Fold this sequence. Notes:
Layout: H1 8-16, E1 22-24, E2 27-33, H2 37-54, E3 59-63, E4 66-71, H3 81-93
Antiparallel strand pairs: 1-2, 2-4, 3-4
Amino acid sequence: MSTELLTESEIAEAVATLPDWTCTGSTLTRTLEAGSFLSGIELVGAVAEVAEAADHHPDIDIRWRKITFALSTHSAGGLTRLDVSLAHEIDRLAPRFS
């Protein structure tokens, strides 16, 4: 998958397909609330497996049941298709842990 930076219009298109995510500067962010602390940790583990397979790793903040994922391709200096793809994968996984 391309690590080419997305254009402003590509970012707008991507954000439109990710209603639970916010885009601030060069970062996509979503905070989820898991059903329990352990469910939140399991969600982080599931996302870690997907991220490791894609060799693209999110910043993750855990606050009891609230998990915040921040996505940006640091090596490219902004948002790429890798970030959008991982955001969709997180959206796919999240309902199993709420």
